[in-house]
Design brief:
The protein is mainly alpha-helical. It has six helices and four strands.
Length: about 180
Amino acid sequence: MTRSGVVVQFEPTRQDSGAAAAISEARMKASMFYRIASLLLLLFAAGHTFGFRQNNPEWGADAVLALMRSVHFDAQGFTRTYWDFFSAFGLFFSVFLLFAAVLAWLLGGFPAETLARVRSIAWALAICFVAVTALSCRYAFTTPIVFSTLITLCLTAAAWLSAKQVSIDSVAIAG
């Protein structure tokens, strides 16, 4: 700023620099966790999409799968089988995983101010994956349990760090 030819320059104090460094560190950590979650979600989606309709003969499910494919019925004007429903809901979940991957990636790219404004979305995504993890533990097997647990941990850490970042921002502004 210039007043009558004198240049006034703001020099950040050590306290200001420390607060800025803390904000930057929290932001980088949150971003890193969102990006890791996004990559895990992509792997989970790929594995689920290509694996959920596979059958291992050791499971002894051939007869059940044959019945699911062979019994046709009318569902609101469409002829469908239980295999159709099974496939559709499996693919719905794959689409959800892809959407969650994109959302996590986008959250990882937001500046601190934007993350503060969409904090409820970040926590909703994390809580959703708490439910996915619980369902995986109840109904699935090791691979989806591991993926959903890691994704839940990353999303929760990112949401927590984003909220912490808001606290740091508030202190920096007040100080």
